[in-house]
Amino acid sequence: MKTVDINCDLGESYGVYRMQWDEAVLPLITSANIACGYHAGDPATMRSTVERALEHQVAIGAHPGLPDLQGFGRRRMEITPQEAYDMVVYQIGALDAFVRSYGGCMHHVKPHGALYNMAAENMVLAEAIARAVYNVRPELYLYGLAGSQLIQAADRIGLRSVSEVFADRTYGSDGKLTPRSQAGAVIQQTELALAQVLRMVREGIVVSTEGAQVPLKAETICIHGDGEHALFFAREIRIRLEAEGMILTAAGTP
C-alpha cells in the first residue's frame, strides 16, 4: 500500500498575533514544520506547539526562515551561503532544545518561504542548507520542493531527502511554484486542491497553469497553516487519501 505524509507549517503565531488553526489541524496531519523565531514564532509558541505535536504523535520538524518578521519570511534577501548555513543551524538548535526538553526527537527540517524557494533554484545555497542540517544531525530528513536543487543537494551529501508537493499552490511548467505575486498562485477551492493532490500522489503528475503535465515525486503533501482554508483542506485531504487506501505516516516511519 502507498504511504504518504501530510505536513503543515505551524507555530507561526507571534506575541499577541495568533494563527487560528494550529490546534485543530494537528490531529489531521502526520508531520509539523514549526517556525523557529526568524520569520514567525516566539519561544512560548515554539514550546507550546512542540508540546501539542508530541501529544498528537506528530513528527516534528524545524521550519527555518529568513530573519523577516514583518514580511513573514516571504521576501527574498541577498544572503551568502555562509549566512544561510548559520541561520539554519541556529534555528534548528533553538527548536531542538524545546523538543529535547519534552523527551522528544526531531524528525526533519523544512526551510520556509523565500529561503525555501531560493534554495530550490540556487545550488550553492541549497548545498549550504543541506550541509547545515547534516552537520547538526545527519539522521534528519530534509523536506524540499520535488525535483529542486535542495533535494539534489541533500541526496549528494547522503542526507535523507523528502520530495514535497503542495495542495494549495499552483505550478508552472518548469515544476516551480507559481509566485504568490501572480493571480491564481494560491488554490482556494477544496475540490481543486483535492484533485491536484490525488493526481500528484496517484500518477506523479501536476497540471501547470499553462496546461502542461509536469512529472514530480510526491512523498509529502504541504498544507499552509496560515491559509484561510487550512483546516478544511487538511480534513478533506486526509479523508480522501484514507478512502483511497493510502497509509498516512511521516516520512521514513512505518
From TrEMBL:
EC numbers: 3.5.2.9
GO biological process, one term: carbohydrate metabolic process
Alphabetic keyword roster: ATP-binding, Hydrolase, Nucleotide-binding
Pfam families linked to this entry: LamB_YcsF (PF03746)
Function: Catalyzes the cleavage of 5-oxoproline to form L-glutamate coupled to the hydrolysis of ATP to ADP and inorganic phosphate.
Assembly information from the UniProt record: Forms a complex composed of PxpA, PxpB and PxpC.
Name of the protein: 5-oxoprolinase subunit A
Encoding gene (name): pxpA
